[in-house]
Amino acid sequence: MDLIKIAEEAFATGKQHPSFKAGDTVTVAYRIVEGNKERVQLYRGVVIKIAGHGEKKRFTVRKMSGTVGVERIFPIESPAIDSIEVNKVGKVRRAKLYYLRALTGKKARIKEKRVNG
Q1: Which residue of 56, 69, 74, 84 is 20 to 30 Å from 16, comparing CA positions?
Q2: Where, if anywhere, are coiled coils annotated (predicted)?
Q3: Secondary-structure breakdown of the chain: helix, strand, coil percentages, each rounded to the nearest 5
Q4: In sequence order, which residues have a C-beta less than 8 Å from that of residue 52 and are 6 or more positions away?
């Protein structure tokens, strides 16, 4: 058997996360180790891209911290991710939302998809 596949299976978390796509607003709860203490930090922002497949799948979340845009890349199978919560389902026609980097203020908002039910 391939050694890479064995290593990937050993480090796979097997957690079930909700399905989301580019344009959705998500809150990612991930664990941070500071010295000997461990805490959970929430990171809320818009998913601007999803890349990769299988265990290598990762997604980029962009949020505004004051007037500065901050992007963070999370691997889906990361053991540091505690949970992922979908806050809003966005209505977009693109898979990669790089154009949001150039927009500020109300122009950077994404329309919310109306959910019947």
Answers
A1: 69
A2: none
A3: 20, 45, 40
A4: 58
Q: Are 58 and 75 in contact (CB under 8 A)?
A: yes
* pLDDT recorded at residue 115: 73
Domains of the chain and any CATH numbers = 3-108 (2.30.30.790)
68-75 and 81-88 as β-strands: parallel, antiparallel, unpaired?
A: unpaired
Per-residue pLDDT band for 1 (boundaries 50, 70, 90) equals low
Predicted local confidence at residue 117, as pLDDT: 58
> Which of helix, strand or coil describes residue 14?
coil
The Cα 87–Cα 76 span in angstroms is 17
CA distances in angstroms from 104 to 54, 63, 69, listed in the order given: 34, 11, 9
Write out the two tokens for 117.
């039910």
Q: Who wins on pLDDT, 4 or 63? A: 63
Rounded CA gap, 66 and 88, in Å? 21
